[in-house]
Amino acid sequence: MQIHQLTKSKGLKDKQRRRGRWNATGTGNYSGRGLKGQKARSGHSMKPFFEWGQTSIVQRLPKARGFTRYYKLVKDVVIVNLGALDADPRISDAMEITKKVLKDLGYIKKETAFVKLLSHGDYAKHLTFKDIDAFSAWAKAKMENPGTVHSASKKVPAKLEKSVKKVSKAPVEKKAPAAQPVVEKKAAKAPVEKKAPAAKKPAAKKTTDKPATKKTK
Prior knowledge:
Layout: H1 57-60, H2 70-73, E1 77-81, H3 82-87, E2 96-97, H4 99-105, E3 114-118, E4 128-129, E5 134-135, H5 137-144, H6 158-167
């Protein structure tokens, strides 16, 4: 391959900048790197948060009093759905599901993960769960009655019934509209026939009889 055979890669829209090809290109002499210095040298690389020898803020901040790392404040929860377990052919009916089984099947990466079971999807198998950390209210309802609760028609779990009752209000009876007085309509008048306009007589022509003038020689 030679230089004239090179082509632009797909998706490249910006005009290619030719650096160091004299001042007509706009980036001649110093090729857009400025005048000398550390950043103008070839092979230059700078780590993020580098502060020119000073201890960076990333290193200084954890030493401050009351600092807590972000991953200690947030609990990493791994979600597993009942519908996925029900549709998995590797899981037989009345099988015991543990974190070790979930790891072997590829649902979680570590056995030490915090696993929460959700109710998304249909569930008809009679599975038993061991050492699972948390369950949603809908998941518990499906586990108690497998095959009866589906995503299309959900039953309200016992824990959620109180909150649903508070929100739902008694139906308001609509009052019948008051009877309006009947107004008798007046009989419509018969249309009056319009008489055709009488034909106008032609106007008499005016005659202007002027006395004859005698010609004089």
